[in-house]
Amino acid sequence: MAIPLRRNASALVGTAALLAGGGWLATGCSQDGPFSDTDLAMLQTFALVPLPADPSNGNADVVAAAKLGKQLYFDTRISGPLGPYDVGGTNGSLGNAGDTGKVGCVSCHDPQNGGSDHRSQPAATSLGAGYTSRNSPTVINAAYAPLWQFWDGRVDSLWSQALGPPEGVNECNGSRLAVAHLLADNYAAAYGGVFGPMPDLSDSTRFPATGKPGEPAFDNMLAGDQGIVNRIFANFGKAIEAYERRLVSPNFSPSPFDQFLAGKTDALSPEAIAGAKIFIGRGGCAECHRGPLFSDLSFHNIGAPQEGEHVPATDVGRYDGIAAVIANPFNRNGEFSDQKTNDHLMGLTAGDDDIGRFKTPSLRNVSLTPPYMHDGAYPDLWDVVNHYNFGGETGLYSGETDPAISPLLLSTADLDNLIEFLQSLQDGDPFPTADFPEGLTAAPPP
């Protein structure tokens, strides 16, 4: 299929219903304060709510699973050889071409740096075994998304998201057999305490050291042995999800905005207050950036320019993501899901209007996660708000932008205030936790 590249005006618009909110109004705010009652009611819908359950992972909230998951999150031994772009000491390389055991989840999603990649240069995409084709989204608060993960929603759970990078040739460049052996050789006791006894993988004829679907070492295995490895691999993802479910805003000291919602009326500066009014008013931001995550968790074509070093010329986004999630053996309706559900997959088909759509990112901690857009096209928040202010007419991209698009006509002062509000969404340090004495986001002890 030929995918057209278009240059159109764009602004962030949304069609999804308002997420069910929780929380409370800021104590002491009324029509006599900086916000009207209508504004306050709207701001209330952004308040944090309890984390949604994930029934597809029966160990999602088990402490032992989270502890194992944190070890695996920081373990770089899941990775295979680095590629030719890796030259030690340059561009944030993790080593030299051919080096193994250098890339882990933490390499591109550092929880001590906003949950994203501040290492790779140029920063638009991430340098693992090679350069990825998209910007690394933050892992902080990813657990709030009840279904779709990645920019294109090509997986439907947080645990299945964790299974993509280990085998991605430009990410960890590893394999599920290598992951299974890593668990068997180094984490058998911890694994057994969560998922039951670790299978015996010592027969190298049955269980080669490395291999994944599409490679003879894996494809030539007996179906039953493939199932054993796939089960271990799925549990690897479920343990990582259990840790990532701790990486949510309620486990960090509250942002100025959340402090305001809790009653600290002076937590927001006058500029942030002005920016909040724009955000929920004439800026139209809340049409898509809504609910506790400041995201409608849906997909939109906003005309972000498809440009940058190592960024492909064409990216159809959600269009390809739909086919991928349906075909994924680790989706919520597959044999490795602890509670099979398929309502979200029934009738799901890709249409031309899905071309160039990408998931609405959360704006919590957005000031910590530059660059921005799915391809890292914009280095700072000013470029982002300016993109929408001018209607998104910024460059070539796939598909058609959402139809209700027009420039916002905001002044420079308006944009500055909007950025001030976005900066008020930044959490503080993580709270101490007995489960991780070293700290929630710090590397686990060796």
Care to describe what's here?
The protein has 446 residues and is an all-alpha fold. The protein folds into two domains: 1-51 and 252-317 and 355-446, Cytochrome Bc1 Complex, Chain D, domain 2, CATH 1.10.760.10; 63-244, Cytochrome c-like domain (Cytochrome Bc1 Complex, Chain D, domain 2), CATH 1.10.760. Helix content is 28%, strand content 2%. It has 14 helices and four strands. The strands form two sheets. The protein has a two-stranded antiparallel ribbon. A two-stranded antiparallel ribbon has the order 2-3. It is globular and about 70 Å long. It starts with a strand and ends in a 23-residue tail after the last helix.
In short:
With 446 residues, the protein is mostly helical. 28% of the residues lie in helices and 2% in strands.
The helicity comes to 25-40%
Largest sheet: 2 strands, antiparallel
Q: Give average pLDDT, whole number.
A: 92
Question: What is the architecture of the largest domain at the second tier of CATH?
Answer: Orthogonal Bundle
For the record, the count of structural domains works out to 2
Structural class: mainly alpha
User: Please, how many helices?
Assistant: 14
CATH domain fold name of the largest domain: Cytochrome Bc1 Complex, Chain D, domain 2
**CATH-level-4 superfamily name of the largest domain:** Cytochrome c-like domain
Radius of gyration: 22 Å
Q: Indicate the overall shape.
A: globular
CATH classification class of the largest domain:
Mainly Alpha
Strand content: under 5%
Question: How many angstroms does the end-to-end distance come to?
Answer: 50 Å
Question: Spatial order of the strands in the main sheet?
Answer: 1-4
Q: Give the strand tally.
A: 4
Which spans have pLDDT < 50 for at least 5 consecutive residues? 1-31
List SSEs in N-to-C order.
EHHHHHHHHHHHEHEHEH
